[in-house]
Amino acid sequence: MRTVFVVRGSDALHLGWKGRTGRIDDNAIREEVPDFHRRKFFLSGSHGMVDGMESALRGLSVRRSCIEKDYFDGSTDT
């Protein structure tokens, strides 16, 4: 398993982040995971982030069976 962390552009400067920034798109997927057609993707986050990532992956013809989704809203209520 490999995890790639991406920080939103506006937060990156504040944090001194040196890694990838911005939204994850098809180009980022190709660069970070060149063999993406042979991989399984686990998406976890807000509905907008997860749905956006799923759309990018489906646009690259990644099979639905290779995409696992988990939604959370970021609240701290228990």
Can you give a write-up of this model?
It contains 3 helices and 4 strands; from the N terminus they run βαβαβαβ. Strand 1, helix 1 and strand 2 (20-21) form a beta-alpha-beta unit. It is 35% helix and 18% strand. The strands form 2 sheets. Strands 1-2 form a two-stranded parallel ribbon. Strands 3-4 form a two-stranded parallel sheet. It has 78 residues and is α/β, with parallel strands linked by helices. The N and C termini lie far apart (30 Å). The model has no long low-confidence stretch (mean pLDDT 87).
Short description:
This protein has helices spanning 9-15, 26-32, 47-59, and strands spanning 6-7, 20-21, 41-45, 67-71.
Distance between the termini: 30 Å
Number of helices: 3
Mean pLDDT: 87
- How would the global form be characterised? globular
Strand order of the largest sheet: 1-2
Q: What is the element string, with H for helices and E for strands?
A: EHEHEHE
Give unreliable regions as ranges: none
Largest sheet: 2 strands, parallel
- The overall strand count is 4
The Cα radius of gyration reads: 13 Å
The amount of beta strand, in percent, is 15-25%
Structural class of the helix and strand makeup? alpha/beta
Helical content stands at 25-40%
